[in-house]
């Protein structure tokens, strides 16, 4: 009876679907285990073999936990809003919903083919209105909340209104905009409704504000920092500039400290935690205010070294700083304007990374030192970012390398004084930036003090004169939440006299309208500006024609859409109760599942999705909607499966193509070759296929220089990518070798968290293993299962495997489990094991890794139903306790034969048995050995 993987896999995939085998229950008495993969974006290219790596690992754990008696939630869905679908819509005119739906259909086919144990009854798509109505509702909750520093959590905005109406805002300790004017309770109550709403916008957790953004003119949208690579858009490589726009923003900064502290409570890799710590960027120091000479303006700075204030030589503002236009002198205006224009073309990330380029312009203005009253020149420089700190620095070149380089670069030019040295240390060659081993000099009342005492003293003096105070600062900025795109969640917002109003929950979702084109309008409005039915009737509570807008009862709706991270910042909770029409999830479902026990995905999401998800989860916890502070208990980042690219080598005139072994000392150029043109195992090029391939028409008449009658391509490990033609389709592997082979092979390639190259040639070994496993259960005539008692060696092989596989799954070391399976099957084959007592637990052991063949074997063993919840075999130590030892028997140090003896024999008993052995007598030839050396359990050596 042969192993036909295609028939077996199709049979069991159909069985699982029809029987809802992997559907989780929200009311089970079993302990829960929630395992989740990061949301896939359904691109048109479909999956390549690198994509399922994390899914296979999570599926092994999910299946293992079911075997252990857990109620496992292992859902899947799609992060289906996004820029790629919109760009494709712009190019083709097709609605993004259509292409997204088609891409999802393709993804689903591929995922099903690999045999994942997903609970598809809970599938979600962020672009479905029944999903994004809840995203809209969460946005409204953020709008209706403020952050109370006294309670250290978000609260309903009604509690803030109550404080205002009874106490005013003087004693309100909130995360809010800066420089809010104080008012009394009487003044608040006398304000008009509009005035009150404008004030509340300064406190809300999501708010409208003019913000510096990354604007991509070619894409017509704002981009997040992680959507920009080397100063251009990741999508399409278009230029990105900095500009000010009125945007919705989220006060993630309110949660900076909690986001930091929460990292100590979760089981994530230290590298991901460190990425988040660096992104949040906590600094302890002081806020200092410098007056601007001849102006009513002041410059606020945050510094971690207030003790160095007497070393301030100049000040630097970010080019975007709002004061620049106000304080720049007429003489410097042209130079400043030109510099600002040039800087706008560089992203914040690019400016942060570029530590070599020194550039800046003197504004012509001067600030006043708070203690010496000395004039300090004010410069602008793109190494200062408007979004970090206050967008201004007090430059102390003697104590900071970047300030030192800046001062020396502009030394002798207008507006750059000599560097002041305030340390009893030499700074002729470099800045002195240590916090120990010095005393202050030329520092007035700080002279003779060190870092610690100097810091304490300066903060006391700053507070005395009202020029500063101790402060903790965070690099984390509020997150811009508006996108000038079509294919995203519509905001549930309409505008009355320019002020935002939220649409009531019972009228959600506000569904994305139809538009004729997906580009911005001619006057620069977002794509929703093309919609003709996009106004809110506040009486009928419905979306109506724009022509009916009267700003009395019918008002304009928000034209921006939410960013890609909106829907993915809470999706794990929707899986808990995916069909709830009223709420994003019921209280009972949330209480039962709590949060994700195991989350697997890419490390590239460290400071994007993972940070935003934690923020939204904490907010929902504050407001009583989520049961836990952290969304993901344990996080594993899978490594990348790399492609094995193939190359041909062309001569400079492109008329000759040399085989790999003939290119030495030749001036050749490598060209990527589509893997469809080569034999992936022998690396031989199919020349006729290559000539006929549309990509290589330029070489249809080229001469192929062969070695031994063949053209051998070059191979190189690179990122798997369509552009490198090294993508391997998992469908092809499943069709030829089977999904179980694919699953085992991807795990066998190496540790889950490491990058590893794909090599199709290696897959035949795994395919052969499954055929060997099959032959333990079947021969050509059918089942060979025996009900006899197994031997001790058979039990030993099985329990070694139980022990190893259990430990490996618990430690996520899946590659070594596959090796152990191979060892076990080889051992059982040599022992001629067809025994039910061994092969039944072996089928269960294999099931998480190769579920289709395991189901078939379980069925062949006479069992009904699925193997998926059969108890996982338990390791028993007794089967590994050695009762015998195979001793090497040596004569004068040379091993001649082995003998198996019980381990409890004494040395004298061992000697008696060995001396009586016929093989010993043949070796001695009648001689008596001079010495017999015996170490029980180790060696037997006869000397002389």
UniProtKB/TrEMBL annotation:
<dbReference type="InterPro" id="IPR002300">
    <property type="entry name" value="aa-tRNA-synth_Ia"/>
</dbReference>
<keyword id="KW-0067">ATP-binding</keyword>
<comment type="similarity">
    <text>Belongs to the class-I aminoacyl-tRNA synthetase family.</text>
</comment>
<keyword id="KW-0963">Cytoplasm</keyword>
<dbReference type="GO" id="GO:0005524">
    <property type="term" value="F:ATP binding"/>
</dbReference>
<dbReference type="InterPro" id="IPR009080">
    <property type="entry name" value="tRNAsynth_Ia_anticodon-bd"/>
</dbReference>
<feature type="domain" description="Methionyl/Valyl/Leucyl/Isoleucyl-tRNA synthetase anticodon-binding">
    <location>
        <begin position="794"/>
        <end position="906"/>
    </location>
</feature>
<feature type="domain" description="Aminoacyl-tRNA synthetase class Ia">
    <location>
        <begin position="713"/>
        <end position="745"/>
    </location>
</feature>
<keyword id="KW-0648">Protein biosynthesis</keyword>
<dbReference type="Pfam" id="PF00133">
    <property type="entry name" value="tRNA-synt_1"/>
</dbReference>
<dbReference type="InterPro" id="IPR009008">
    <property type="entry name" value="Val/Leu/Ile-tRNA-synth_edit"/>
</dbReference>
<dbReference type="GO" id="GO:0002161">
    <property type="term" value="F:aminoacyl-tRNA deacylase activity"/>
</dbReference>
<dbReference type="InterPro" id="IPR025709">
    <property type="entry name" value="Leu_tRNA-synth_edit"/>
</dbReference>
<dbReference type="InterPro" id="IPR013155">
    <property type="entry name" value="M/V/L/I-tRNA-synth_anticd-bd"/>
</dbReference>
<protein>
    <recommendedName>
        <fullName>Leucine--tRNA ligase</fullName>
        <ecNumber>6.1.1.4</ecNumber>
    </recommendedName>
</protein>
<dbReference type="GO" id="GO:0005829">
    <property type="term" value="C:cytosol"/>
</dbReference>
<feature type="binding site">
    <location>
        <position position="722"/>
    </location>
    <ligand>
        <name>ATP</name>
    </ligand>
</feature>
<dbReference type="InterPro" id="IPR001412">
    <property type="entry name" value="aa-tRNA-synth_I_CS"/>
</dbReference>
<keyword id="KW-0436">Ligase</keyword>
<keyword id="KW-0547">Nucleotide-binding</keyword>
<dbReference type="InterPro" id="IPR014729">
    <property type="entry name" value="Rossmann-like_a/b/a_fold"/>
</dbReference>
<dbReference type="GO" id="GO:0004823">
    <property type="term" value="F:leucine-tRNA ligase activity"/>
</dbReference>
<feature type="domain" description="Leucyl-tRNA synthetase editing">
    <location>
        <begin position="277"/>
        <end position="463"/>
    </location>
</feature>
<dbReference type="Pfam" id="PF08264">
    <property type="entry name" value="Anticodon_1"/>
</dbReference>
<keyword id="KW-0030">Aminoacyl-tRNA synthetase</keyword>
<dbReference type="InterPro" id="IPR002302">
    <property type="entry name" value="Leu-tRNA-ligase"/>
</dbReference>
<feature type="domain" description="Aminoacyl-tRNA synthetase class Ia">
    <location>
        <begin position="11"/>
        <end position="144"/>
    </location>
</feature>
<dbReference type="Pfam" id="PF13603">
    <property type="entry name" value="tRNA-synt_1_2"/>
</dbReference>
<dbReference type="GO" id="GO:0006429">
    <property type="term" value="P:leucyl-tRNA aminoacylation"/>
</dbReference>
<feature type="short sequence motif" description="'KMSKS' region">
    <location>
        <begin position="719"/>
        <end position="723"/>
    </location>
</feature>
């Amino acid at each position: 009876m042969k192993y036909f993987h295609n028939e077996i896999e199709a049979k069991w995939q159909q069985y699982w679907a029809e029987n809802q085998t992997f559907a989780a229950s929200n009311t089970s008495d079993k302990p829960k285990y929630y395992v989740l993969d990061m949301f896939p974006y359904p691109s048109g290219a479909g999956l390549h073999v690198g994509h399922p790596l994390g899914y296979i690992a999570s599926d092994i754990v999910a299946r293992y936990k079911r075997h252990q008696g857990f109620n496992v939630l292992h859902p899947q869905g799609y992060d289906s809003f996004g820029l790629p679908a919109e760009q494709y819509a712009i190019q083709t005119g097709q609605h993004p919903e259509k292409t997204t739906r088609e891409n999802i259909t393709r993804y689903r086919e591929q995922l099903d083919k690999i045999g994942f144990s997903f609970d598809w009854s809970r599938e979600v798509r962020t672009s479905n209105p029944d999903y994004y109505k809840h995203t809209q509702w969460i946005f409204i909750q953020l709008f209706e909340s403020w952050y109370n520093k006294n309670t250290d959590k978000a609260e309903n905005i009604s509690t803030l209104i109550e404080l205002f109406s009874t106490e005013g805002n003087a004693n309100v300790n909130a995360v809010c905009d800066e420089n809010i004017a104080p008012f009394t309770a009487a003044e608040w109550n006398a304000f008009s409704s509009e005035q009150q709403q404008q004030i509340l916008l300064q406190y809300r957790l999501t708010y409208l504000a003019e913000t510096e953004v990354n604007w991509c003119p070619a894409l017509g949208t704002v981009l997040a920092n992680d959507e920009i690579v080397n100063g251009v858009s990741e999508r399409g490589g278009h230029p990105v500039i900095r500009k000010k726009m009125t945007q919705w923003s989220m006060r993630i900064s309110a949660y900076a400290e909690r986001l930091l502290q929460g990292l100590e409570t979760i089981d994530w890799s230290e590298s991901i935690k460190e990425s988040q710590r660096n992104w949040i960027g906590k600094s302890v120091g002081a806020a200092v205010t410098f007056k601007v000479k001849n102006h009513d303006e002041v410059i606020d700075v945050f510094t971690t070294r207030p003790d160095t204030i007497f070393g301030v030589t100049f000040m630097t503002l970010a080019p975007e700083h709002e004061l620049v236009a106000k304080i720049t002198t007429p003489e410097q205006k042209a130079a400043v304007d030109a510099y600002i224009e040039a800087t706008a073309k560089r992203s914040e990330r690019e400016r942060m990374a570029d530590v070599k380029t020194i550039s800046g312009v003197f504004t012509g203005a001067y600030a006043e030192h708070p203690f010496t009253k000395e004039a300090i020149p004010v410069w602008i420089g793109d190494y200062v970012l408007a979004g970090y700190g206050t967008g201004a620095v007090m430059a102390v070149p003697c104590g900071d390398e970047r300030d030192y380089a800046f001062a020396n670069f502009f030394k002798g030019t207008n507006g750059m004084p000599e560097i002041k040295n305030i340390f009893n240390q030499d700074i002729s060659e470099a800045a002195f930036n240590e916090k120990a081993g010095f005393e202050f000099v030329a520092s007035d009342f700080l002279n003779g003090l060190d870092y610690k005492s100097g810091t304490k003293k300066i903060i006391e003096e700053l507070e005395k004169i009202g020029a500063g105070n101790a402060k903790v600062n965070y690099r984390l900025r509020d997150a811009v939440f508006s996108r000038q795109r079509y294919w995203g969640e519509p905001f549930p917002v309409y505008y009355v006299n320019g002020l935002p109003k939220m649409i009531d929950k019972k009228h959600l979702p506000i569904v994305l309208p139809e538009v004729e084109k997906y580009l911005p309008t001619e006057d620069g409005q977002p794509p929703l500006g093309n919609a003709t039915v996009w106004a809110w009737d506040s009486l009928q509570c419905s979306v109506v024609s724009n022509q009916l807008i009267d700003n009395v009862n019918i008002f304009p709706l928000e034209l921006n859409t939410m960013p890609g991270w909106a829907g993915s910042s809470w999706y794990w909770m929707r899986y808990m109760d995916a069909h709830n029409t009223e709420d994003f999830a019921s209280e009972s479902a949330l209480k039962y599942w709590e949060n994700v026990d195991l989350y697997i995905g890419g490390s590239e999401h460290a400071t994007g999705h993972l940070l935003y998800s934690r923020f939204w989860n904490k907010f929902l916890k504050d407001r009583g909607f989520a049961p836990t502070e952290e969304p993901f208990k344990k996080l594993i980042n899978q490594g990348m499966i790399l492609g094995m690219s193939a190359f041909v080598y062309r001569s400079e005139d492109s008329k000759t193509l040399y085989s790999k072994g003939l290119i030495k000392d030749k001036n050749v150029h490598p060209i990527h070759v589509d893997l469809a043109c080569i034999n992936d195992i022998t690396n031989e090029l199919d020349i006729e296929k290559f000539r006929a391939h549309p990509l290589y028409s330029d070489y249809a008449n080229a001469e192929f220089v062969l070695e031994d009658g063949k053209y051998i391509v070059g191979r190189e490990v690179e990122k798997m990518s369509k552009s490198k033609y090294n993508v391997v389709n998992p469908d092809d592997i499943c069709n030829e070798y089977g999904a179980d082979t694919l699953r085992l092979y991807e795990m066998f390639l190496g540790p889950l968290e490491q990058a590893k190259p794909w090599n199709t040639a290696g897959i035949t070994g795994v395919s052969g293993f499954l055929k060997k496993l099959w032959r333990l259960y079947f021969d050509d005539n059918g089942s060979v299962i025996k009900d006899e008692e197994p031997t001790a060696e058979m039990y030993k092989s099985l329990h070694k495997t139980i022990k190893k596989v259990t430990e490996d799954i618990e430690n996520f070391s899946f590659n070594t489990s596959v090796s152990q399976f191979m060892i076990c099957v080889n051992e059982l084959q040599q022992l001629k094991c067809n025994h039910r007592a061994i092969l039944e637990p072996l089928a269960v052991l294999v099931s998480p890794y190769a579920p289709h063949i395991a189901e078939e074997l379980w069925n062949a063993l006479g069992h009904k139903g699925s193997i998926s919840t059969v108890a996982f075999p338990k390791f028993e130590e007794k089967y590994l306790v050695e009762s015998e030892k195979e001793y090497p028997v040596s004569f004068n140090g040379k091993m001649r034969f082995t003998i198996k003896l019980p381990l409890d024999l004494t040395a004298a008993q061992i000697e008696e048995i060995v001396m009586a052995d016929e093989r010993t007598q043949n070796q001695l030839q009648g001689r008596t050995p001079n010495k017999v050396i015996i170490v029980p359990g180790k060696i037997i050596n006869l000397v002389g």
